């Protein structure tokens, strides 16, 4: 079929032996999409198994979650946005993304993002795209210690709709235009519908968070499909609310919601999910344990699961072993909540700890969470040291740098 013969985008990589093998894996993915159009070809089952268990494009890969610190001038401008025209705002966004790209490339990352520089907040900015809500401009608690209860909620006033998408495709197009050719892999991130539903108040038509989630789900799904059609080959669907509340909610229901959200892009890009415990103003919001999420979350239809480890002193590190039997694992080795600057050797030791639980091909390394709540000077130092520390271990194992 035409769908099976769709071109699999090539991964940018150096001409090393491992990258050649990575290209062969992509070729196998292409072949299996043709094979999947036919039935009864049981003798292809070993090939099907191999292609459905493809590991990291680069062993011990270095990546980020999504957000990057705003430059100070962008924060000032966003607080006085009414003083700028549409062209001014686009120019600021381009400039901010250029800075984020430059910093990430300078750090030596294998995967970069646009730093979410055109979003005022990880997910709050998405509400401007949703029709049918009355945006709250002031939170109920303004003063006092910073916490999640200082994030306002929005009132539903009519049927929820997202007629023009969430803006992620335009963000990816900007990232593509501002990034060098043959540079790092480009990744897009998008919050899932359950996380988005958390800032919207139920009403008689949408009586609870589940109903709001279901209303948003098809719109997030379409945005993901549009991203892939725009050429994006790597996507993270952020669902921190699922990891935050999995200890008290139905985790099987979470898995069902997630899998229906991503069903249009599974097998068409490298897909991951970020599961953390909150980071607004550098604070967690929930019980910080992954055990309540598993084994159900092993059924998430993703290539990679990202775990927040550094800020939790690598508590539950043994879970890597079980997850890696079916999926790649991205480990947070940078504590975004702390201004302790992890040295390269500190990072290298964390990598070695993780390697006691799985192979290099199953692992990537990143900060614990997005970096929007960490000062830029600290972010730059932490990312440089993270990459250098991972490279120390790659060197020890004879892997390409």
Tally of contiguous helical segments = 12
Largest sheet: 7 strands, parallel
In percent terms, what proportion of residues is strand?
A: 5-15%
Over the alpha carbons, how many angstroms does the gyration radius reach? 21 Å
Structural class: alpha/beta
Placed side by side, the strands forming the largest sheet appear as: 1-12-11-10-9-8-6
Element string (H = helix, E = strand): HHEHHEEEHEEHEHEHHEEHEHEH
Low-confidence stretches: 1-54
Question: How many E-type strands?
Answer: 12
Q: Ends: how far apart?
A: 39 Å
Shape: globular
Helix content estimate = 25-40%
Mean pLDDT: 85
What brief labels describe this structure?
single chain; 401 residues; alpha/beta; globular; disordered N terminus
Describe this structure in words.
This protein is an alpha/beta fold and 401 residues long. Helices cover 38% and strands 13% of the residues. It has twelve helices and twelve strands. It has helices at residues 17-35, 45-52, 72-79, 86-107, 168-178, 193-197, 209-229, 240-245, 251-262, 319-323, 344-355, 376-397, and strands at residues 61-62, 111-112, 131-134, 154-161, 185-186, 188-191, 200-201, 234-238, 270-275, 304-307, 328-334, 363-367. A seven-stranded parallel beta sheet has the order 1-12-11-10-9-8-6. A three-stranded mixed beta sheet has the order 3-4-7. It has a two-stranded parallel ribbon with strand order 2-5. Helix 1 packs across helix 2 (45-52), helix 4 runs parallel beside helix 12 and helix 11 crosses helix 12. The two termini are 39 Å apart.
């Amino acid at each position: 079929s035409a769908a099976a013969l769709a071109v699999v985008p090539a991964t940018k990589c150096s001409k090393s032996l491992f990258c050649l093998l990575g290209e062969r894996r992509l070729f196998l993915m292409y072949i299996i999409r043709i094979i999947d159009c036919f039935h009864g070809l049981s003798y292809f089952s070993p090939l099907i198994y191999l292609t459905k268990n493809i590991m990291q494009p680069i062993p011990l890969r270095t990546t980020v979650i999504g957000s990057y610190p705003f430059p100070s001038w962008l924060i000032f401008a966003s607080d006085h946005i009414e003083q700028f025209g549409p062209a001014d705002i686009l120019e600021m966004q381009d400039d901010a993304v250029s800075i984020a790209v430059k910093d990430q490339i300078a750090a030596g990352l294998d995967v970069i993002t646009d730093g979410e520089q055109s979003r005022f907040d990880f997910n709050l900015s998405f509400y401007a795209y949703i029709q049918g809500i009355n945006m709250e401009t002031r939170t109920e608690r303004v003063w006092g210690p910073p916490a999640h209860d200082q994030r306002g909620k929005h009132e539903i006033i009519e049927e929820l709709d997202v007629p023009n998408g969430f803006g992620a495709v335009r963000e990816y197009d900007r990232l593509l235009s501002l990034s060098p050719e043959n540079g790092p892999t480009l990744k897009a991130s998008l919050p899932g519908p359950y996380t988005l539903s958390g800032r919207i108040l139920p009403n008689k038509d949408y009586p609870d968070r589940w109903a709001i989630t279901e209303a948003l789900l098809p719109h997030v799904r379409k945005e993901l499909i549009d991203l892939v059609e725009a050429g994006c080959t790597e996507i993270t669907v952020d669902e921190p609310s699922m990891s935050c509340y999995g200890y008290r909610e139905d985790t099987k229901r979470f898995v069902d919601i997630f899998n229906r959200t991503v069903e249009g892009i599974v097998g068409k890009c490298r897909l991951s999910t970020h599961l953390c415990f909150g980071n607004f103003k550098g604070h967690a919001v929930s019980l910080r344990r992954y055990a309540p999420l598993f084994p159900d979350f092993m059924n998430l239809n993703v290539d990679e699961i990202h775990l927040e480890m550094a800020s939790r002193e690598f508590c539950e590190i043994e879970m890597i072993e079980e997850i890696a039997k079916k999926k790649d694992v991205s480990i947070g080795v940078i504590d975004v909540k702390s201004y302790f600057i992890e040295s390269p050797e500190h990072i290298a030791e964390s990598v070695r700890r993780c390697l006691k639980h799985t192979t290099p091909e199953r692992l990537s390394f990143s900060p614990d969470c997005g970096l929007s709540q960490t000062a830029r000077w600290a972010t730059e130092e932490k990312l440089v040291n993270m990459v250098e520390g991972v490279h120390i271990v790659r060197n020890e194992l004879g892997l390409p740098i």
